[in-house]
Amino acid sequence: MGRQLVPLFCVLLAGIWLAGCASPHHLALSPTRTAEVPQLGDGQSVSVFAQDGRDSDVIGHRSGQGMSTSVITVDSHQVVPKLQEEAERAVADMGFTPTQERADGRPVLTLELANLDYTHGDSTQMGLDEANIEGVLRAVVQHQGTTYTGTYTSRRVQSYAVKPGQTANTRMLNELLSDALNRAFSDRQLGELMAR
């Protein structure tokens, strides 16, 4: 009797594991800037706003096919507050005083998530698949009639034998957007226009 239960248990366990692999991934991202920023401010107030410029919360599918069970989403209402926090922290670290209020004559920084893309690729290595991920941040500074726009792209190709789970995908995308944040706030021209 016990021997008959073992195969049944294995089948049930495999079914649960496959169901878990096939479930949609709703990723909660917390990207963090780690790069040093240029010290250009002297306490001036800067209006800081983060926004999502994507058309959809869906960033791709793990299987390479458009199946609803393999969809990967990053919700705008979850990621935008994280980008807002990082933008304000970067502005403060530059020596400015971030605020979410607008005022005449005050510089405005808008940080936009322009694109976040996850596509299934074909690895050249036998037995491996790959994920191609791309994150694009756009920073726009407006001050004294001048506008400066910087676009910061981070890309990564991740090879794997077993499809990444939700934790692995979250980590990869956090690293991707953290790199884009580092690129954005290392751009000296952003701070120079804010300080003008």
Description:
The chain is of the alpha/beta class. The longest helix is centred in the N-terminal third of the chain and has 21 residues. A hairpin with a 2-residue loop joins strand 7 and strand 8. It has four helices and eight strands; from the N terminus they run H-E-E-E-E-H-E-E-E-E-H-H. The strands form two sheets. A five-stranded mixed β-sheet has the order 5-2-6-7-8. A three-stranded mixed β-sheet has the order 1-4-3, with no helix packed on it.
Topology, element by element:
Layout: H1 2-22, E1 25-26, E2 45-52, E3 58-61, E4 71-73, H2 76-93, E5 97-99, E6 108-122, E7 129-143, E8 146-160, H3 166-185, H4 188-195
Parallel strand pairs: 1-4, 2-5, 2-6
Antiparallel strand pairs: 3-4, 6-7, 7-8
Quick structural gist:
By secondary structure, the chain is α/β, with parallel strands linked by helices. The chain has 4 helices and 8 strands.
Low-confidence stretches: 5-21
Reading the helices and strands in chain order gives HEEEEHEEEEHH
Helix content: 25-40%
Strand content: 25-35%
| Straight-line distance between termini | 81 Å
Taking the sheet with the most strands, its summary is: 5 strands, mixed
Based on DSSP secondary structure assignment, what is the total number of beta strands?
A: 8
- SS summary, helix count: 4
Regarding quaternary structure, what we see is single chain
Placed side by side, the strands forming the largest sheet appear as 5-2-6-7-8
Q: How much is the radius of gyration in Å?
A: 21 Å
Class computed from helices, strands and strand pairing: alpha/beta
Summarize model confidence as the mean pLDDT: 87
Shape: elongated
